[in-house]
Amino acid sequence: MLSKKTKYAFHALTFLGKVGNKKPALIQDISEAYGISHKFLENILLELKKAGILGSKKGKGGGYYLIKDPKDVALSKIIRLLDGPIALVPCVSINYYEPCIECKDEATCGLNKVMIKVRDEMLNVLENKTLADILEKE
Amino acid sequence: MLSKKTKYAFHALTFLGKVGNKKPALIQDISEAYGISHKFLENILLELKKAGILGSKKGKGGGYYLIKDPKDVALSKIIRLLDGPIALVPCVSINYYEPCIECKDEATCGLNKVMIKVRDEMLNVLENKTLADILEKE
DNA sequence: ACAAATCCTATAAAAAAGATAGGGTTTGTG
DNA sequence: CACAAACCCTATCTTTTTTATAGGATTTGT
């Protein structure tokens, strides 16, 4: 399951996508819209900013806004940023690869093989669906 | 990612599948084969037994053995048993459904829609691939 | 000058996962 | 029968991860 962090990120991005046009929205407004703790959301938005997805403006009239075109923000990007690997086992992760400690030989591991298949099917959706697809359906 | 519990379950099932023919194998032997703690694995095998996937025999010459035909053990079954939901958000889980607290209206939630798609693609693999597929590739 | 708002980092609290402990029960064998 | 082998069961402990909070620093508009 996705962490709350990631889910909240998606909701916040959706909120900002609806506001649109680089108009800054307040953390406050987003957190109230979804009943998310202000401070928790603050950390999340900051990460999204550092990743180049959001921009921000300080002081009165400030807030966060979407920098990227929603159709250029793949779901996979957000998940990887906040949750880490998408794959179900580390030994088939593309971005967070690690050998499985209990596995002596990856080449002859049957689990490895089927998990590659699962990963590919997940990525097929998550890399191709974007924030724009979420917005379109709201 | 899958928990270690689930990964270990897959490895243990593979081990037992290779032994085959309802010949009981010792916890000890499985745990040594993969470097898994004996006691931790014991709990896992017990759960698999309670779920009707494994059988066991006590006393000398005892152990655990596969009750089911490997091709009747879908990967999804093992994951759900030990890890819970396969879906990435609770509001699209088939077996562990829960509404998302931050979501006011599921019907108009864009995230919900794309996550149904992800879930279906995952299930398409996980319901159709079985222990037999893992065994075949080892 | 002041207030509004983000920025930053640290820490606390809660939950989940991983691991261990230890006695109970069943069963084969001499 | 006695005994040892092996699973059965449930509780607890430890570690890690996740979730949440705290509090001051910095920037900016009026």
TrEMBL record, chains A, B:
Entry keyword set: DNA-binding
Stored Gene3D superfamilies: Winged helix-like DNA-binding domain superfamily/Winged helix DNA-binding domain
NCBIfam families in the cross-refs: rrf2_super
GO molecular function, one term: DNA binding
Official protein name in the record: Rrf2 family transcriptional regulator
Top-level taxonomy: Bacteria, Pseudomonadati, Bacteroidota, Cytophagia, Cytophagales
UniProt organism field: Anditalea andensis
Keyword field contains DNA-binding: yes
Database matches in SUPFAM superfamilies: Winged helix' DNA-binding domain
Superkingdom, taxonomy of origin: Bacteria
PROSITE patterns, alphabetized: HTH_RRF2_1 (PS01332), HTH_RRF2_2 (PS51197)
Pfam family, one: Rrf2
Cellular-component GO terms for this entry: cytosol
